[in-house]
Amino acid sequence: MDIRVLKYFLETARESSMTRAADKLCVSQPTMSKQLKDLENELGVKLFTRSNYSIKLTEAGLILKDRAEDIVNLVEKTISEFKNLEDFSTGDIYVGAAESDLIKYFAEAVKDLQKRFPKIRCNIYSGNKIDVCEKLDKGLLDFAIVTNFLDLSKYNHLKMPSYDTWGVIMRKSDPLAKKKIIKYDDLSERPLICSRQWLEQDVSQWFGEKAKKVNIVATYNLAFNASVMVKAGIGYALIYDKLVDTSNDSELTFRPLKSAPKSEMFVIWRKNQTFSHVAKLLLDELSLRFKA
After folding, report:
1. How far apart are CA 227 and CA 235, in angstroms?
2. Spatial contact of 93 and 121, defined as CB atoms under 8 Å apart
3. How far apart (Å, rounded) are the C-alpha atoms in residues 150 and 152?
4. What does the pLDDT look like over 224-246, one tens digit per residue?
5. Chain mean position to CA 161
6. Do 13 and 57 contact (CB within 8 A), yes or no?
7. Measuring CA to CA, which residue among 230, 259, 260, 263 is closest to residue 244?
8. The pTM of the whole model exceeds 0.90
9. Angle, to 10 degrees, between the axis of helix 59-83 and the axis of helix 3-15?
10. CB 169 within 8 A of CB 244
11. Is the separation of the CB atoms in 65 and 48 below 8 Å?
12. CA angle 70, 269, 74 (to 5 degrees)
């Protein structure tokens, strides 16, 4: 399986057109068509369904798309590391991070490192802890930044200072906004907007026996999208503080949730991991700032 052909496949999937993909990659359409047909023959499956106007991925094509993206990214990451093997002052660092105000501590470490080594580039992939840990385990990331609601025994880690506060985002005009602190009973039967990760792992822990009566009307994985749904009047968003604009000019406000578990953040990496030079430089910088 040729990496070049996988790139042809991915571009065709993105464009839903072999002609547009060929133009974008400066390859003749017949050449691309033959290469993709050979790929289908090699795998023994159809990857596309073709019509006069577009190309769609089959179920097998969707599976290959996920695999191909990981393979191509890992190859490109490896090539980049070898290009900069002899130069300690330049290169790419790959980090996966959940949404959190505590990322500012990590950003400060990167900023100070780049003052000394301006050619170092930090590439951030945003996602929940399941997404980022999967990429970390595959070697696609050097580090991941995750909450304490994770089994850390399989990783090395550093603990960030401070913690995130859980609460509720609502419109300032909402009667519930008159309360300074929100209790679980205040949310009973109210329409809630929750992160998919929280829904899968924390709802029972927080609400106990009342979890079955929790009225979840929407889920999100990006805080901004959750705030848009709150503005539209869909419900109340359970969210970390400082991720959504609640300034004087905003129509939204944040209220802390009483007795909600505190969320600490950790920088994690695989045990026995071999770092690139620049990733090791960042680890040294982080180790000076955070506790093991």
Report:
1. 10
2. yes
3. 6
4. 999 999 999 999 999 999 999 99
5. 21
6. yes
7. 230
8. no
9. 130
10. yes
11. no
12. 20
